[in-house]
Amino acid sequence: MASPLSAGFCELVFQSTDTPENVQPVLQVLSVKKINAPAASGTDRYRIILSDGEYFIQSMLATQLNNFVDDGSLAKNAVIKLTSFVTNAVQGRKLVIILGLENQSWTGDKIGNPANLEQSAAANPPAAAAAAPPPPAAAARAGAKAGPPGRTASKPGKDMGPLYPIEGLSPYQNKWTIKARVTQKSEIKHWSNQRGEGKLFSVTLMDETGEIRATGFNEAVDNFYELLQEGKVFFISRARINIAKKQFSNVNNEYEIMFENQSEIEPCDDETVPQVKYNFTPIGELGNLQKDELCDVIGIVKEVHELGSVTSKATQKPFAKRDIQLVDQSGQAVRLTLWGKQAENFEHNDEPVIAFKGVKVGDFGGRSLSMFSSATMMVEPQIGEAYALRGWYDANGRSTNFQSYTNSSATKGDSSVAKPSELKTIGQAKDEQLGMGDKADYFSTEATIAFIKQESFSYPACANPDGCNKKVLDNGDGWLCEKCQKSWPNPIHRYILSLNVMDYAGSFWITAFNEVAEQILGATANELMAFKNGQDVEFNRVIQKATGQTYTFQMMAKQDQYNDQIRVRYQVRKAASPDYAAESAHLAQLINQMST
DNA sequence: CCCCCCCC
């Protein structure tokens, strides 16, 4: 049987400096391997070995095509047609980056006995320079329709090196050009610290293969800040590529670009470079996201609040701040906070549609949103979601009574119960070092009481009915409160209860103060104190009844110093019965997401 | 070489 594969394709790739054009080769998958370094977003990346029946060659799957792996159509022995791809050279090795493919419904085994082209080439180097056009035979066999390769980006008289896909950039290459759209541009930021001072800006660049952040310092600000316009496409070359510090950005790339004095940036008229892609979360579904997660949101700006200012607790610096309210078809409203210049310059009081990319989810008052430095906003974007939203708002939306996250607790049940998606295991709380920072961290965990400390579970507090609650001392003449300067015949005991709680994988000690401890034990500290002093049976009954109970705990983690040791203290702020129905629904939803 | 993303 004749091979269905495009014999000669691997040789064609190997011998061409640029991506062969007008070729849609049919190739067989020899292996699919998940790479150890996933993209910054956590997206998996796959390396795929492709065979043309004679040779095989390495390829990478553009992450937006991962669904072909997930649904099983890109598996060992599958035969695919590459409908779109680019090639590049990494340290002399050729790599195909797959941008589009069609499965060819092949059900057979491995075709032919393909050899490693790199090894063959090393043993038998081609006589012609790599820049030579491919042999006609190879091109023809690979299915080339017409035309020379030739995709070197150049302007008159200046060679800028081969055109690279963003996904193919790495610190090991220095001669490259990308053609990319600026999807985000920061303000110019000035800094000053012990290492010096200066100014900088950054942009997010995007092409059909991926995105990358680029930063320019000092002179590069003067040279390029005005030139690089948000939304425009540019040729960019002769810049440095560094390892990205991913903790500071949500841009999906291992690397980032640093503009230098000799960097070349040229505007480009080609509008085929893709626009920003959004993955909108409806406002009504923000509750399904974790606090601090980044998301895309589109909404009608229903309210614009006054410009305000806050002083950062961390830096003591003032920040301009403005809240706006967004609504959408879900009937839900959410507050979004703008900062700095974006807050000062926001003047859209005519209920526009705005699309936000990369805004941070907060949990203040249920759910809130905050602009992140790398977040972008597009007023009246020319996209389907915006037209739909506008149509709905003009027809019905304007007269809708929107549910607000901030006062949703009265209508949406007990807000003290954490949403299933927000729960952390005890192990996660420790792994994430919650409470180890300067500020307290808040989280919710579902855990079972394993042990209740029975010594010193309470302290004698001031009996003043105004709720002084300060510790009092028995001076033989009554219990003296130093704050109230009053003596009481008896104190009121208040709990400081230590509980050891555990979930399936871990445990920790937590502290419950009076109200929560009363709820957990079903007795006041005064009652328990009385039991302890007389009827041990009752005391044990209270303790045993509470032990083994499972709660959703709202926790605060905060570090303090104790005997010169820094330690994290976990305090229970609220305890509630777990909402097993909601948790099951959440799990079912996660399962559905996996299988679609 | 920044890297803070804040407040209530």
From TrEMBL:
Domain (Replication factor A C-terminal): residue spans on this chain: 442-587
CDD domains found in the cross-reference section: RPA1_DBD_A (cd04474), RPA1_DBD_B (cd04475), RPA1_DBD_C (cd04476), RPA1N (cd04477)
Listed Low complexity bias regions: 121-131, 138-150
Any one Gene Ontology cellular component term annotated for this protein: DNA replication factor A complex
Region annotated Disordered, chain positions: 112-166
Pfam families referenced in this protein's UniProt entry, alphabetically: Rep-A_N, Rep_fac-A_C, REPA_OB_2, tRNA_anti-codon
Record domain Replication factor-A protein 1 N-terminal: where: 12-102
Subcellular location: Nucleus
Function: As part of the replication protein A (RPA/RP-A), a single-stranded DNA-binding heterotrimeric complex, may play an essential role in DNA replication, recombination and repair. Binds and stabilizes single-stranded DNA intermediates, preventing complementary DNA reannealing and recruiting different proteins involved in DNA metabolism.
Description of how the protein assembles with itself and partners: Component of the heterotrimeric canonical replication protein A complex (RPA).
PANTHER family documented for this protein: OS03G0429900 PROTEIN
Family stated for the protein in its record: Belongs to the replication factor A protein 1 family.
Protein's name in the database: Replication protein A subunit
Species: Naematelia encephala
